[in-house]
Amino acid sequence: MAVLTWISAWVFVAGPTKQGSLLARWDRWDEGIFTSVAQHWYFAAGTDPRHVAFFPGFPIAMWLAHLVVWNWIAAGLVVSAAAGAIATMALGRLARDEVDASNADADAGQAAANATLFFVLAPAAVFLAAGYSESLFAAFAFSAWVAARRDRWWLAGLLAAGASTVRVNGLFLAAAIALEFILAGRERRQWRQAPLLVIPALPVIAYVVYLHHETGDWLAWQHAQAAGWFRTFQSPESAWNQTWRAAFGGTQAGHTAWVFQLELIAVVIGLALTALLLLKRRWPEALYVALSLLALGTTTWFMSVPRAMLLWWPLWTMLGAWAARRPMVRTLYVCCVAPVMVGVALLFLSGQWAG
Predict the structure, then answer these.
(1) How many other CB atoms are found less than 10 A from the CB of residue 63?
(2) Which ranges does the record mark as transmembrane (predicted)?
(3) Residue 142 in contact with residue 156, Cβ under 8 Å?
(4) Beta-carbon neighbour count of residue 74 at 10 Å?
(5) Measuring CA to CA, which residue among 30, 36, 51, 32 is closest to residue 211?
(6) Which of 36, 105, 152, 233 has a CA 20 to 30 Å removed from the CA of 65?
(7) Would the pTM count as exceeding 0.90?
């Protein structure tokens, strides 16, 4: 990412001689919204009311980082770097568990190395480095699933609550943890621990109550999503058709059409992943991915699905285990997917829409 930042600063220049700082390359799109919330919170004079569409977890982390970091953009990058490191380590543990649980003829260490490599070379990996919420959510979510798989339900609930302060996907994670708890069996859980499953919902409830107190609207978050990003409920068929037209109908600029093509591919991958998890009877993980797809696949058009893919840990762990058994998978992934990641990163760093 550092190399791509350097390339974008000299190749994609705003003016004939003005490159600007390298940090400025990361001041794109949602990063500015997170910075505004971190600086002024949601309802200060002159702030955009649509900013309430973004949960407060990442802006709070940015504010804390800014106590020791000189620059708001740098603060966001520091939060993502630290959270990304935690997420990657947790993903490695999950990949090891993937091999151990399946009793597969594969090296667990190699599976972990593969999974983490695939994760950081994913098409939307630039958002793991940027001042966006993906890395922080992944740190909480992946760690919560590690805790749940080890029957540490109180820790899983607390970490899932952290995820719920960052993105609404924390509720999908909470649902998966609850189903894991129910299916765990007597040897892994006790029913007196069930109240812990409510903890992840508390940050979302608190945020909804806060928005109602400030705006008088119980649906302020949904209305902000619709006003700023056209996220209104549509049938999956309508969303697919609208995205298809944007991708191949000639209604969008070339690079934007390409991004919509990636959205379609990500949805197909998500559906295939859900089906595979169901076939393997991995019900909680299938529920998590299915809820993510349902939320993103029933809006005006598909948007940010490749970013959501980053948060589907079963995708990376299963790919990692598969590549440990079939090294050619690793080679094909690096050759085919890494160039896509470079393309998306250069779009983002040059100020173009990248999903």
Answers:
(1) 18
(2) 69-91, 112-133, 153-182, 194-213, 258-279, 286-303, 309-325, 332-354
(3) no
(4) 16
(5) 51
(6) 152
(7) yes
